[in-house]
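Lecture 7 notes: from sequence to structure.
We start with the chain below.
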Amino acid sequence: MVAIVSAVLFFIAFLINAADISTNDTFSSTNLMLLGLTALALHVAGIGSGWSVRGRRR
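Predicted structure tokens for the same chain:
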């Protein structure tokens, strides 16, 4: 789920950068890219993945 959020943020940042849309400082393409990288790092760390590995059941 967090990986999908990061992909959407990367896509929006790409559109802002490719279309050369002037936005305020909060929604710049760099800030959206950094938010996407943060979400991707959280996904790689296992937060928001929905799976919890507790060990094998026998």
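Points to note: Residues 30 and 52 are 33 Å apart (CA to CA). The two ends are 30 Å apart (CA to CA).
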